[in-house]
């Protein structure tokens, strides 16, 4: 007997075929013709057995089909439109369980509820819906309770206003009874946000059923000290379900491509899940994780690790082209490159400076959050103005020359200054400090808008003082004067995404790179309240009903932008030829340089840290250039032709330059000249390429 099945059996695509593919042979085991037998979760193959040969071919076909469908699913889930449709399916499927009772034991025998064939508690409802949609999501969620579900959703939503239908509301609290076992994170309940006011859907009461509630807030008879935690399901929508909690390493969900049926593999519990005791892990299919770790330990390296989806396939292609091997175990510390979307304290704690490359400087928020950038620029201007009185320095750009007038709403004096400044007819834009993709942004145009904002801020401040907030501290906000007369392209508003690459921090080596132009779908109307006409990012534009037909025209290359301005404005406005590639480019570099210098002394510096920052610029009708914001982990999707031409080069050049400078720094060699990348070092002042 030749043992070849251990590897195939452990493969996630085939694990749920354990009984379906081999069940018929198992029936004959008592008659002496049992050709498949399980030995420590492995199967043996008899090459002379016709049944073995036939089943082996079926297994290989299923394995190939699994890989094809998995790739197709991952590609599909990168499309925000597909994720929006999946979010709607999630909601519809959850609503289909309205009326299902909470648990059998709480109802009298003979009642319809007691005789029900299905019971769902709060986390059981979520788990059931995810099971129903396993093929669409690409995984089968593990059997953990609400604490497990909480740990697999890392994206916290700051407030009700920023919640989307389908997001989850988790409730932590303290049980009144000392006999009740304390839950992990004290997480006692979960419901689904419906988006209609503060309505929610869930299974709340023991003698109740799945229903829609007028409000997610309620008084419980079982627990008190309730706190509400808003979580986005975007991570699940992207096909990822793993624990993001460093304290609790739950077991993995099952990778599950569309089109497969694993009806034999689902655990029998649809509602209640046994509580985790001590450090026990809920591993639905531990063999899958063991196999990945075994593969990692047997590989020779060099290794790289990718955490998250943004640009993952591009980074993977780059690394594998160099013969590097990808790690699946995020705890491994012997990587040469780690590229992660979210910043985890454990990652930086274990980082080995001078031996490894790590994407994202840990405290880049001083540059990439709205308040962080505002504070850094203000402080830098104040210090440089004092120094200029003592010494002769090159002219510093004044803040009001490139940064819209801005006030912090979390600072009382600035807040009051803003309210006293506002006049009817002005437009201001309010933004949370750390969110991206246009989330949480709204316009302030009328006195009614201002009064509503003031009440909201006063209530939040009062709740903070009285400790009545029912969720984590809301994100601080800023307000900026809205630039109402932007330059338009074919009647549409636009901004320009460029890149600042901090390729090395010891010494500092910084590069500028052109990106692309982002346009709205709608013709610009300053009086409209539709944010898709004011915010140009792709996330907002995808909400436009005709986005699919218009998307190729919502992103322009810099060459097309330059040609358009040459044709439309060189003669009429007296603009110099190729203004985009000369005057505008130089201005962007000046602004970027001032922003970088403002944070240079604040950033954490270790050999191996590197960062790619997305910088957004707006041009008004007088051709004045404004910086809107700087973004960490900028979007690296390629959902239109222009982005397909640009983004892969951005990723490859980022890694080429960071690697070359890293190795040169290790060897004590001069950084310049550079032997890689198409970023033109001639575009940069010398001060931008080395630590000042």
From TrEMBL:
GO terms for biological process: proteolysis. PROSITE patterns: NLPC_P60, TTL. It comes from the Eukaryota. Residues 84-235 form the NlpC/P60 domain. InterPro entries: NLP_P60_dom, Papain-like_cys_pep_sf, TTL/TTLL_fam, TTLL10. Keywords: Hydrolase, Protease, Thiol protease. The keyword rRNA processing does not apply. The keyword Transport does not apply. Coiled coil: none annotated. GO terms for molecular function: cysteine-type peptidase activity; protein-glycine ligase activity, elongating. Belongs to the peptidase C40 family. This is Inactive polyglycylase TTLL10 isoform X5. The gene is TTLL10.
């Amino acid at each position: 007997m030749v043992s070849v099945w251990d590897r195939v059996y452990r493969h996630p695509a085939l694990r749920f075929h354990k009984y379906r593919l081999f069940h018929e042979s198992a029936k004959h085991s008592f008659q002496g013709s049992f050709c498949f037998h399980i030995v420590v979760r492995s199967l043996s193959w008899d090459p002379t057995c016709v049944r073995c040969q036939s089943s082996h071919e079926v297994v290989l076909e299923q394995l190939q089909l699994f890989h094809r469908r998995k790739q197709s699913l991952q590609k599909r889930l990168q499309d925000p439109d597909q994720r929006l449709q999946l979010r709607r399916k999630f909601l519809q499927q959850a609503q289909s369980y309205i009326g299902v009772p909470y648990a059998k034991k709480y109802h009298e025998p003979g009642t319809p509820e007691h005789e029900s064939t299905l019971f769902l508690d709060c986390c059981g409802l979520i788990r059931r819906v995810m099971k129903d949609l396993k093929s669409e999501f690409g995984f089968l969620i593990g059997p953990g309770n609400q604490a497990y579900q909480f740990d697999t959703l890392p994206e916290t939503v700051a407030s009700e206003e920023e919640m989307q239908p389908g997001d989850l509301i988790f409730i932590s609290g303290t049980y009144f009874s000392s006999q009740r076992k304390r839950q992990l994170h004290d997480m006692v309940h979960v419901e689904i946000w419906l988006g209609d006011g503060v309505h929610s859907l869930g299974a709340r009461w023991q003698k109740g059923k799945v229903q829609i509630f007028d409000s997610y807030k309620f008084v419980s008879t079982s627990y008190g000290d309730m706190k509400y935690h808003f979580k986005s399901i975007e991570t699940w929508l992207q096909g990822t379900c793993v624990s993001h909690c460093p304290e609790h390493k739950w077991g993995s969900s099952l990778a599950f491509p569309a089109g497969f049926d694993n009806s034999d593999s689902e655990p029998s519990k649809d509602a209640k899940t046994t509580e985790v005791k001590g450090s026990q892990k809920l591993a639905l299919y531990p063999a899958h994780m063991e196999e990945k770790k075994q593969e990692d330990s047997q590989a020779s390296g060099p290794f790289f690790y990718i955490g998250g989806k943004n640009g993952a396939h591009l980074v993977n292609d780059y690394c594998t082209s160099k013969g590097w091997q990808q790690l699946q175990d995020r705890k491994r510390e012997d990587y040469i490159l780690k590229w992660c979307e979210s910043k985890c304290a454990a990652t930086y704690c274990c980082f080995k400076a001078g031996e490894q490359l790590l994407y994202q400087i840990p405290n880049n928020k001083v540059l990439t959050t709205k308040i962080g950038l505002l504070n850094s620029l203000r402080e830098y201007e104040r210090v440089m103005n004092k120094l200029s009185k003592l010494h002769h320095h090159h002219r510093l750009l004044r803040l009001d020359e490139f940064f819209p007038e801005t006030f912090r709403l979390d600072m009382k004096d600035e807040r009051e200054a803003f309210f006293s400044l506002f006049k009817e007819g002005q437009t201001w834009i309010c933004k949370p400090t750390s969110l991206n993709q246009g989330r949480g942004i709204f316009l302030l145009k009328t006195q009614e808008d201002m009064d509503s904002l003031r009440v909201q801020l006063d209530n939040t401040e009062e709740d903070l003082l009285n400790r009545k907030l029912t969720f984590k501290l809301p994100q601080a906000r800023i307000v900026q004067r809205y630039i109402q007369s932007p330059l338009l392209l074919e009647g549409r508003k636009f901004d320009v995404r460029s890149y600042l690459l901090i390729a090395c921090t010891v010494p500092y080596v910084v590069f500028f790179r052109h990106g692309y132009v982002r346009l709205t779908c709608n013709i610009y109307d300053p009086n409209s309240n539709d944010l898709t006409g004011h915010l140009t990012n792709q996330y907002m534009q995808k909400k436009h009903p005709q986005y699919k037909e218009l998307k190729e025209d919502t992103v322009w290359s810099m060459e097309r932008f330059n040609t358009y301005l040459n044709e439309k404005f060189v003669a009429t406005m007296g603009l110099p030829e190729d203004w985009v590639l000369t005057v505008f480019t130089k201005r962007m570099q000046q602004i970027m340089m001032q922003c970088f210098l403002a944070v240079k002394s604040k950033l954490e510096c270790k050999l191996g840290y590197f960062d790619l920052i997305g910088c957004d610029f707006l041009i008004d009708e007088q051709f004045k250039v404004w910086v809107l914001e700087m973004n960490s982990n900028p979007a690296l999707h390629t959902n239109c032709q222009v982005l397909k031409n640009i983004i892969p080069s951005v990723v490859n050049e980022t890694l080429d330059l960071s690697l070359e400078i890293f190795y040169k720094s290790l060897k004590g060699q001069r950084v310049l000249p550079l032997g890689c990348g198409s970023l033109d070092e001639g575009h940069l002042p010398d001060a931008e390429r080395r630590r000042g």
